[in-house]
Design goal:
Number of strands: 2
Largest sheet: 2 strands, parallel
Mean pLDDT: 81
Strand order of the largest sheet: 1-2
Number of helices: 5
Helix content: 55-70%
Structural class: mainly alpha
Oligomer: single chain
Number of domains: 2
Order of helices and strands: HHHHEHE
Radius of gyration: 25 Å
Strand content: under 5%
Low-confidence stretches: none
């Protein structure tokens, strides 16, 4: 049953994704590239899931396959919701026109469909770009945020005491040694009295941290 629901959703998303694309452009090269990208993303995930040998840890290649699929899924989901809502609104008007047959009244305007498709594509592109950025660049966008904490009852021994808190490392997501070393250097440069690590060292398995 789960597979049936999943396949139905995927097919629905493919349909509405293509409808949105077809509405805004008649260029068949664009259509072909879109379908090629979709097939590559879904095929890549299926290969990593069903064919390639799985290791105890979740390797970056498999994580990228999942990430690309999620990005595509979210992109198509936003398109589908927008166009499905427009279809639902359009149905009663179409039925009314069919039975009343009053020319020029409450007619469906193709220009509205184009406008909605353009807006949907623009909105859907936001999470798509954000997810892709996070997969490649965002995970290495290390930042140092400094805060000064003041307490009236703080013992004098802790005056000027410094803490460095790091979290959500998810070491299994890393695949760039140079960038990881840069993050470690940032921590070392703070020369804090105490370094606190507050969780999410790995994604799934403890072995993910061994290479680092």
């Amino acid at each position: 049953m789960r597979w049936l629901v999943t396949i139905t959703l995927l097919l629905l998303f493919q349909w509405y994704g293509f409808q949105a694309l077809k509405t805004v452009t008649s260029n068949k090269w664009v259509w072909g590239i879109y379908f090629l990208v979709v097939l590559l993303i879904i095929g890549n995930l299926l290969l990593h899931t069903l064919v390639f040998e799985r290791t105890p840890t979740m390797e970056p290649k498999f994580m990228y396959a999942i990430g690309f699929f999620i990005a595509l899924f979210v992109f198509q989901a936003v398109l589908s919701i927008a166009l499905l809502a427009e279809d639902i609104i359009r149905i009663p008007f179409t039925i009314y026109n069919y039975f009343t047959k009053i020319p020029g009244q409450l007619r469906y305007l193709p220009s509205r469909r184009i406008f909605i498709s353009q807006i949907a594509l623009g909105v859907a592109a936001i999470p798509l770009v954000s997810l892709l950025y996070g997969m490649y660049k965002g995970k290495y966008n290390f930042k140092v945020l400094k805060y000064t904490l003041e307490y009236d009852d703080l013992p004098e021994a802790f005056d000027g005491f410094t803490l460095t808190q790091i979290s959500d490392i998810h070491s299994g997501s890393f695949d760039n040694v140079e960038q990881v070393n840069y993050g470690i250097d940032l921590i070392s440069q703070q020369q804090s009295d105490v370094v606190l690590f507050t969780g999410d060292l790995v994604n799934n398995k403890t072995e993910e941290v061994l290479p680092w």
